[in-house]
Amino acid sequence: MSQEREILFLSEHDVRSLITMKEAIEVVEQAFKDYALGKAQQLMRRYLTIEKYKGKIGFMPAYIDTLNVAGIKIVGAYEENPKKYGLPRVIATTVLLDPETGLPTAIMDGTYLTMVRTGALGAVAAKYLARKDSEIAGIIGAGVQGMGQLLGLIEVLNIKRVLVYDIVPENADKFVREVKKMGLDAIRVESAEAVVKNVDVLATATTSEKPVVMKDWAKPGLHINSVGVSTAGKQEIDTELFKISKLVVDDFDQTSKIGGINVPISQGILTKNDVYCEIGDLILGRKPGRISKDEITIFVTSGLAIQDVSVSQLVYWKAKKMNMGVKVKL
Questions:
Q1: Lowest-pLDDT choice from 76-85, 123-132, 286-295
Q2: Which residues are part of the catalytic machinery?
Q3: 119-304: what CATH class?
Q4: What are the percentages of helix, strand and coil residues in the chain, rounded to 5?
Q5: What is the CATH number of domain 6-113+306-329?
């Protein structure tokens, strides 16, 4: 007799009510630990380009043995969404699967989860690489991912002030207003340089094709999370700054091809030897994180499927426990 099939559908509202940044940080750190131990696997993000609509659709599958879950995030990036349709530039959906049978168990909104899981990984990186006394945070790119980075940073550091820059001043002003509602001091500054030179920890969440952070701006002790690049040909951080920093990545194979180091790697200016380690090595204690107050540290992520699947599984478990979402029998 065949097993009854049931899929749980979860909206963005459901997802928002079921996950906190603190929980996401714990789950994401564990996922990278499992990955470093060979207890999780994933495929590099692959894209379909839809030129007619100036968009692309990415596919990110993963399996995590310790959670007994498989899944895939389907993520679209459409440049005209905000102006033309009033939609986010990035829209995502996560599908979870029973690894024993391959049957789908849940389909949920992944747009908010993408912000949370990226912010959570930035927090994990800051935990190991930022100075513990960091109080001033900088955000370059005042969008959804910039906010996710800040929400992650305030969970692991005692952030008291935030400097914000965006090429669209109105975006930065809106960001500042939201940060002030959180009880933090925040100001919009007039240039990326003014941010970099005056902060302890920095997050870049841009779609820039050219570096927005230069070597000469970085002061001793700075930590940077570079999270904006997930396609080849783009770069947020000056190559010379990479070379003088302790450079950590999420996964070298993927990030060297589509992440923030892809351009200097493709040009042969940066090599794997310039990368200190992957973040799983820090979590497992295979390599030490920050070892002095003056070293400059950089973490580069292009976003991995293990983040999406691990956080989505937690949301699914909590939804079942709280009887949330819409159940559909097939």
A1: 76-85
A2: 73
A3: alpha beta
A4: 40, 25, 35
A5: 3.30.1780.10
